[in-house]
Each structure stands twice: as structure tokens, then as C-alpha cells.
Amino acid sequence: MRRVRLVGVAAVAAALFGALAVATTRGSPVALVGVAAVTGGVVRSRRGAVTVGAAVVALGVLVAGVLGSGTVPLLFGVAAAVLAWDFGHYAVSLDESLTDGAVTHNAEVVRVAGGTLVAALTVGVVSAAGLTVAVPAADTLTATLLFAGTILTVYAVR
Predict the structure, then answer these.
(1) What is the mean pLDDT of the segment spanning 115-130?
(2) Is the pTM of this model over 0.85?
(3) Where does the sequence pass through the membrane (predicted)?
(4) Domain residue spans in the chain?
């Protein structure tokens, strides 16, 4: 069995946070399936499973948005799905590239801290903009655009 790295644990935690962000909606079961896929991908060092899992977490957020969830939980859910994807891929890359004895703790902490900071700032800025600018409640179009933006962001990062 391969070594589970700190950044891999952070990927699973981010996916779980994304599922919890929409826990009171019908999107929660979908997002929990994504959490299981991210966990399996990190433990088995499978990049495809991590990608599918993060996408399913984002799909759970989309379902929550379509069913009328608030904007802020959707933002947290999408940010968490992107973090789960990023951290999971980084964990798999470290696992593929380095030996089991390689010391990567500092690099993993920097990746997790930096990614979390960027996500928190993004959610904060978008939430603050929503408070200062009159925006309608999340509807199907908003949720769909949020989901499409997530997919495009992940594609651009790759």
C-alpha cells in the first residue's frame, strides 16, 4: 500500500467540506459519492478517480444550486471541490514522482496553505461583492454558470 501524504488527507478533507457545504440539500448524497471517489483516488494513487470525485462533488453543489440553495454555501462547495481536485492531483504526483522516504512535508504544507488561502480570499471577495451589489438569489442559471466556471477553471489549471 502506498503512503498517504498530508496533501492527500487535505484533498479528502476538502471534498468532505464541499459535501458538508450542501449537507442540508438533495445535492449532499451526490457530493458524498464524490468524497468516496476522491478518497479512493488518493489512497490508490489514481489521478482519474480524484478528478471524477472532485467533479462529482461539484455536481452535488450544482444540484444544490438548482434546488435553491444559498449563494455562500455554493461558493464554499465549489471552492472545496477545486481544492480537493488540486490537492488530490498533487498527492498523486508526489506519490508517482518520489520514493517513499522522500521528505515532502514542507512542500505539502505550502501547497495546502496557499491553495486554501486563495480559495478563502476568492470566496470572501465574491461574497462581499454579493453583499454590496444587488444580486438575485441563486437560481438554475446561477448554479449552472458556477458549475461551468468550475470546470473551465480546472481545465485552465491543467
Answers:
(1) 83
(2) no
(3) 48-67, 112-133, 140-157
(4) 6-157
